[in-house]
Amino acid sequence: MESAFTWENKALINELTQGLEKAKQLRIHLCSTCPSEAQDLLLRRIISTFEKALMILKWGGSVGQAQECAVLPVRGVFGIRGWKSKKR
To answer: Which domain of life does the protein's organism represent (predicted)?
Structure first.
């Protein structure tokens, strides 16, 4: 039973990793064509979601722990309670 669980976890990690890489590629592509701030924010949230899911699977942490660890330095600050725009 444990080997099936391990295989399923590895397959899930692989799929999430591929999704994360595709989201990053999309972000790079859209950045080259001047995306709107809303598009950029959406892509960063998608990438953050993939990263959190991978952290939970790889390290067995809770969602709260993953949220504390996932910080994306961009035009705003991503905290535990969500996205907040930086005041300039």
So the answer is: Eukaryota
